Amino acid sequence: MMRIGIILGSTRPGRIGEAVAKWVYKIARKVATPNSSSWTSKTSTCRLLDEPRPPSLGHYTKQHTKAWAAKIDSFDA
C-alpha cells in the first residue's frame, strides 16, 4: 500500500491546518497508509535555510536536515 506523509507547514496562531490535516488523513486512510506520526513546523527543531547549498541538490550537512530528508524519502507521496 502507498505511504503518504502529511505535513503541517503553518506556524501562525489560530491556524486551521491541523483540522485540514485530520480531514486529509481520514481520506488518505482509504487508499494508503498515511503517516501515523504527524510533523508540524510549529513544534519541529528542523531549521529552514541553514544548509550551505540549495536543498534541491540533496547535499545536506546538518543532521536535522538529513533526518528530515530520510523521513520524507520513506513516503511515496
Structural summary, described in words:
- By secondary structure, the protein is an alpha/beta fold.
- The protein has a single domain, classed as 3-Layer(aba) Sandwich (Rossmann fold).
- The chain is built from 2 helices and 4 strands.
- It has helices at residues 17-28, 63-73; strands at 2-4, 7-8, 32-34, 39-40.
- Strands 1-3 form a two-stranded parallel sheet.
List the helices and strands and how they pair.
Elements: E1 2-4, E2 7-8, H1 17-28, E3 32-34, E4 39-40, H2 63-73
Parallel strand pairs: 1-3, 2-4
Features:
77 residues; alpha/beta; Rossmann fold; 2 helices; 4 strands
CATH class: Alpha Beta
- Which sequence of strands runs across the widest sheet? 1-3
Report on the biggest sheet. 2 strands, parallel
Please identify, by name, the CATH architecture: 3-Layer(aba) Sandwich
Structural class of the helices, strands and pairings?
alpha/beta
Helix content: 25-40%
Brief account:
This protein is α/β, with parallel strands linked by helices. 30% of the residues lie in helices and 13% in strands. It contains 2 helices and 4 strands.
